[in-house]
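Memo to structure team: turn this sequence into structure tokens by end of day. - J.P.
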Amino acid sequence: MLMLDLHQKYGLRRVINACGKMTHLSGAIVLPEIAAAAAESFKHFFVLDELQDAAGRVIAEASGAEYGCVTACTSAGITLSVAACMTGRDLGKVHQLPDSDGLQRRVVIQKGHCVDYGAPITQSIRLAGAHVVEVGAVNRTLPEHIEHELARGDVAAVVFVESHHTVQHGYVPLPEVVALAQRYDVPVIVDGAAQDHRLRDLIACGADLVITSAHKYLCSTTAGVVAGRRALVEAVVLQNRGIGRGMKAGKEAIIGAMAALEYRMNEDIAAWTAEQDRKVEMILARLGDLPGLALSVDRDPNGCPFSRARLTPDPQRTGHTAVSLTAALAEGDPTIVTRSHHAEVGYLNLDAIELTDDEIELMCARIREIITQPT
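Reply from structure team:
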């Protein structure tokens, strides 16, 4: 097989990914078993409706939902799920969008869930032609806020974001949101982009549509996985004949997602978790003697089964803040990209999932060099 050094050919920096499954770092390393299935798809034609139907059955088995489909990505899945709640399986309404005149088009979302994941989720909702209704305050949303908007009517859906990026206090939790929405016969859409390990739990909460990413912890080709009630999923697929045409998934995305879900159903999650824990311990062992660098372990805040190393540098002793350490690691080739969501409050995380042992050694040596070199 011809092996290409793509970094060298196109003049790209190599990346040591201590940040995790991030879109700006091109997703995940695709597992060999999944890459092989996607590569095999390149050799064949399929009737895409039949392929989506096959994916729907696999997604149902993996998630416990009635049905499923594959979209271009989670962001596309959010837009198309909102559209599906507005149009149902009425092709005339599908063709009308993004003109939503005369359709139920109000979409309720808690203000603390109005995150930006590279683009504002409110924009993803509005792309369907929907009108976003933000309820509550950033740090205080009550059930009464949601129920007030539901009682006013004309609500197509409630969107709930299951992510540590949302405000983590003073919000209405998913089971309560589902119960409120069901009283008014309004579907609940869950953005669970990084929640593939919890997909079955989110479906069990009663959510009508749950969207997760195939190219994060499922380690697949780029795609979004939509699971939920069959009628609504069928309405999501129908959007491919309307505004979803530019968001459709190709055969390699659909086959990759199916292979990833089948792999996950047979995966030893406990063994996988133990391997991630081993790599985190390796990081702690390599950096444990550095003066002024406090080390600890953070469980995944989304509730997924792994941990990350936390580094908290003392600027007086190390000469670096978390911000400056992040910047120093990012310089050069290879660039070392850390999980710096909390750098401004004094710490950064090292996500070991995509790191090899050799990359851990190189990264830790570079951290040691930065901290110990004269300033």
